Amino acid sequence: MARIAWVNLPNGKHVEIALTYIYGIWRPMSNVILDKVWIEKTRKIETLSEDELDKIRDEIKNHLVEWDLRRLISWNIKRLQEIRCYRWIRHKNRLPVRGQSTKTNARTRKGKSTAIANKKK
């Protein structure tokens, strides 16, 4: 089991997919990283040598991942809280932040809907 950026990557996965287990790395970024270090995307994690893993680690150091990215996001939300802006109020109330409609949609952000008893009369 390979360990990159303090995350254990699963052995049975392709490298392209396994890198997405690291917070802050999605499929497009994993493809860019693998293209820069000249590693095939379809290779399995357990077939990589230590040298190839070191190349991937060095390339990932150029990006904000895991705790650094989490800390940056939390600092940004705390900054919004300090200035008491509208976006922070939306964060606090667990509502969509970027102006989306919430009358019928936004179930992901608002949570499961609850039935209201005796609504129709």
Number of helices: 6
Mean of pLDDT: 91
Q: Which sequence of SSEs, written as H and E, runs from N to C? A: EEHHHHHH
Number of strands: 2
Radius of gyration: 21 Å
Tally of individual domains: 2
Could you say what the CATH topology of the largest domain is called? Helicase, Ruva Protein, domain 3
Helix amount = 40-55%
State the major sheet.
Answer: 2 strands, antiparallel
**Termini gap:** 61 Å
Shape: elongated
The CATH class of the largest domain is Mainly Alpha
What does this protein structure show overall?
- There is one protein chain.
- With about 120 residues, this protein is mainly alpha-helical.
- The protein folds into 2 domains: about 1-60, Orthogonal Bundle (Helicase, Ruva Protein, domain 3), CATH 1.10.8.50; about 65-100, no CATH class.
- About 45% of the residues lie in helices and about 5% in strands.
- The chain contains 6 helices and 2 strands; from the N terminus they run ββαααααα.
- It has helices spanning about 15-20, 25-35, 50-60, 65-80, 85-90, 105-110, and strands spanning about 1-5, 5-10.
- It has a two-stranded antiparallel ribbon.
- Helix 4 (about 65-80) crosses helix 5.
- The chain is elongated.
- The model has no long low-confidence stretch (mean pLDDT about 90).
List descriptors.
mainly alpha; single chain; 2 domains; two-stranded antiparallel sheet; 6 helices; 2 strands
